[in-house]
Design goal:
Elements lengths: L16 E2 L17 E2 L9 E4 L2 E7 L4 E7 L4 E5 L4 E8 L1 E6 L2 E6 L3 E4 L5 E5 L3 E8 L3 H4 L9
Antiparallel strand pairs: 1-2, 3-4, 4-5, 5-12, 6-11, 7-10, 7-12, 8-9, 8-11
């Protein structure tokens, strides 16, 4: 019979590690890599990058999830990165400009962006997205992403 793990409640595990949970080995060497963490968006820091752009970050060992809030008309300037990116639009719509292609992504749709692909983004309406990056964006974690802070 498998041992059941305790299920954390919102009051007992808000953004905290859940101990006594193991997972297969990974390349990470810290003990934090073997801990399950529970995050509640309402308690994750909301970082204002500029008046039209805010974000929240949750970072694991090898992947990062960003909840990004863009006001209508917000433009993320042309940039590229070595990270693979998945952009899931929860509400609103974004127009992505990549090389010679333009793709509009609406609520409920996902765009995959391979590493090193230059792209620019414009919010067509107030928009909420979940962006997933592998590996995590160190420039975002270290707040050295000056192209977003204008």
């Amino acid at each position: 019979m498998k041992k059941r793990l305790p299920v954390p409640t919102a009051s007992s595990a808000k953004n905290k590690s859940i101990s006594n949970v193991s997972r297969p080995r990974s390349r990470a060497t810290t003990s934090e890599a073997t801990q399950v963490r529970h995050h509640i968006w309402g308690e994750v820091e909301l970082e204002e990058l500029n008046p039209r752009l805010k974000r929240q970050l949750v970072t694991g060992t090898d992947v990062m999830l960003a909840r990004v809030l863009l006001k209508k008309g917000c433009v993320v300037p042309l940039h590229s990165h070595h990270n693979e990116q998945l952009s899931y639009v929860i509400e609103g719509a974004l127009k992505f400009f990549m090389d010679e292609s333009i793709v509009t992504v609406h609520a409920g749709e996902v765009l995959t962006i391979p590493p090193h692909v230059p792209h620019e983004v414009k919010a067509l309406r107030d928009t909420v997205t979940l962006d997933i990056f592998h590996p995590p964006r160190l420039d975002w974690i270290n707040k050295t992403d000056s192209y977003l802070r204008k």
